[in-house]
Amino acid sequence: MKKVFVLQLIFSTLFYSKAQETSFKELFTDAEYYFYEKDYYEALYYYLKFFQSSDSANANICYRIGVSYLMTNNEKVKAIPYLETAVKNITPDYKEGNIKENKAPLDALLFLGDAYLINNEIDKAINTYKAFENTNKPQNYETKEYMEIVKRKLETCNDAKELQEIKVKFTSKCIANPISTKLPELNPVLSSDGKILYYTSRQKFFDGIFYSTKDGENWGIPKNFNFEIKADGNLSVSSISPDGKQLFIYIEDNGIGNIYISTMLNNHISTMLNNHISTMLNNHISTNDNMQWSQIKKLNICSMSDETHACVSPDSRTLYFVSNRRGGFGAQDIYKSDLDANGKWNEPINLGPKINTPFDEDSPFILGDGNVMFFSSQGHYNLGGFDIFRTQMLDNGEWSEPVNIGYPVNTTDDEKGFYPFDNGRSALMARISKECGGETDIFEYNFSLPQGQSQIEVSGNLIIADTNKILKDDVRINIFNLEASREIESIKPDLVTRKFSAILTAGKYKFSIMSGKNEKISQIVALPKIFYNASFNFKKEIYEKDGLTQDKAKIIALQPNREDDDTPKPSLPASGVQTSGKLHICNMLFDFNSYKTDNYIENMNTLAEYLVKNPSVKIEIAGYSDLQGDVEYNLQLSQKRAETVKNYLGGKGATGENITATGYGENNQVSINISPSTRKYNRRVEFKAISQGIPELIIDPVEIPEEYRIK
User: CA-CA distance, 126 to 116, in Å (whole number)?
Assistant: First the structure.
């Protein structure tokens, strides 16, 4: 009996081991299947079960878990500890798909660097990418490709540090219930009247196309219309046409991405009936509730490659779309196609290397008159992953150099599906946040900012230990352009207020505070290209001997001078003319987004000389702006125009106490605001003589054509 018992025990142990081995193999096989199918949530489930049931130091499984976490929406940082374990045991001879492989491939270092960067641990990311560069790798084509990728990632880390020095001003709020749920909401787009929101919802068993209509300030119960348009599978909202009648949808067909279109049907009768009922019930029923959409139809621009996103121009005659077809500059590029006379899209044209990079571009959206485009890119000057960029159509038909819209709207993670509206001052985008409680939720962004940037105004003030003392006369701020290797400006700050300012372009500069020929403090500052107005503070440093420090320096991104909005240089006014005991000067016009006074030097010299000779005369300098751009920014710009004139007069000896400079922003428009030729008369400085001297001062207004005047 004893021997039988022993045999039974051995047999049971062997059976258990065999069953356990089978279970491990099934877990691994299932995990690998979902991993290659890019279903990373399912892959995670099986990899984690395998991990919990086996050797927790298995570098291969840790690597797979880490990569899977990186591919999720809201759990990317969970990849870090697994990848940190994986990189401790890497090999150039990695055997992919082998259950016996317990080492990780060399690119585990790349993925760990990505995880650090996403978590904004930039220095760790840099060190990890460099560690990958230093590993012993076989010299082949794949290695060279990896080296280019690493080079780009290191550039991105350095760019991220620079871009994060300047924070754009914005507000954001989650579009709460009933839109936000615990499930992912993605790809929001808005009808032109702002009354209908379309978006994608990743439901438990399907991807849903939903819409919600707005009643007052609240969104109604979302409605799914997959069945109506006969769409299913892996799909998402792409865009809505400006007239609201065409909905573009991405659908994956047998592993290939295609763009489909659904058209709003003529629902005149139901709309009339709904309007009648709505009137009877005090307008509590939305006229959008009965809208109907056609069955989806594939666009003729679709190819055997992936087309992942599409949108149309305001006139619906130009289609912009994303494709990874051959002949592009990177994996995914942005193309355009024009509509022919038969309603078909013509042969696509690549937007070229100014927009498309060797890396991926995605989700373009066209604004306004079709001359502004927002899109996402892994290339250009960005923080990491996909960033949102803005570009503008030039007079020659080419797009301007894309400009990053700034941090923290852009982060070191991916930003895609940025849907701009309200002329680019607002946008919708889905992102991860605990604010709404879902996996990804839809947020509305609002920007109280100007609409472009080509120059950067650096302004600030010097602080001395004894704030009652006047700054020494020999103090200067020298600005050295490190990229051009030359000093570009030496600024004398105001001796009383200690303020200074300079206009620069993006680049790297060394700011030095000089006392005589001696440098007291210096600091290297990178001024990044960003789209929106932003603020920046120099690091505070104290030079103990002189108690001198540099602090509170602000960097403001100004609007670019566009050819279609640039005021022609005004001819020199006939100012300074003395007639019948009267001295004439004229009011001043300014170029678009400018406060430069170069064209009115003679006018200001005449006024300055008059004020020096008549020290009791008091004048007001009033600055104004046109209606282009942000209200707050325009107020600041108008103040700058007035103060620039006042400072010039003061530099010529005019008594500052008798001169007031006030910016009135967009108030008191004198010319209609319909074109560059009409707007230029609103960008002005007006003088007002509060008291008179000898001779009498006459201020000549700017002549405005009769048809331009506001009646």
Answer: 9
Q: Which residues pair with 684 in a beta bridge?
A: 589
**CA-to-CA dists, residue 38 to 45, 153, 584, angstroms:** 13, 23, 76
Q: C-alpha angle with apex 432: 431 to 435, nearest 5 degrees?
A: 105
Residue 321 neighbours by CB under 8 Å, 6+ apart:
259, 299, 301, 307, 309, 310, 311, 334, 335, 336, 337, 348, 364
CB 677 within 8 A of CB 589: no
- Phi and psi angles of residue 118, each rounded to the nearest 5 degrees, phi first: -60, -35
- Distance, in Å, from the CA atom of 236 to the CA atom of 682, rounded to the nearest integer, reads 45
Say how far residue 167 (Cα) sits from the centre of its chain.
Answer: 11
- 587 phi/psi in degrees, rounded to 5: -70, 165
Tell how far CA 226 is from the center of its chain: 32
Tokens describing residue 107? 């690119």
Six-digit token string for 69 = 């976490």
pLDDT in tens, 340-350: 999 899 999 99
DSSP tag of 526:
E
| pLDDT, position 539 | 52
Residue-wise pLDDT for 230-252, tens only, equals 999 999 999 999 989 999 999 99
Q: Which residues in the chain come in under a pLDDT of 70?
A: 1-22, 55, 136-142, 266-290, 448-455, 463-471, 531-581, 674-675, 711
Res 369: pLDDT: 75
Question: Regarding beta strands 90-91 and 104-105, do their DSSP bridges make them parallel or antiparallel, or are they unpaired?
Answer: parallel
pLDDT of residue 9: 46
Q: What does the block give as tokens for 704?
A: 């405005």
Predicted confidence at residue 550, as pLDDT, reads 45
Tokens of 708: 């331009």
The rounded distance, in Å, linking the Cα atoms of 532 and 559 is 9
Give the pair of three-digit tokens for residue 146: 């990896």
CB atoms near residue 473 (< 10 Å): 9
Whether 59 contacts 89, CB under 8 Å: yes
Nearest to 210 by CA among 220, 196, 197, 224: 224
**589 touches 566 (CB < 8 A):** no
Instruction: For residue 429, give the nearest of 480, 375, 485 by alpha carbon.
Output: 375
**Inter-residue contact 666 to 631 (CB < 8 Å):** yes
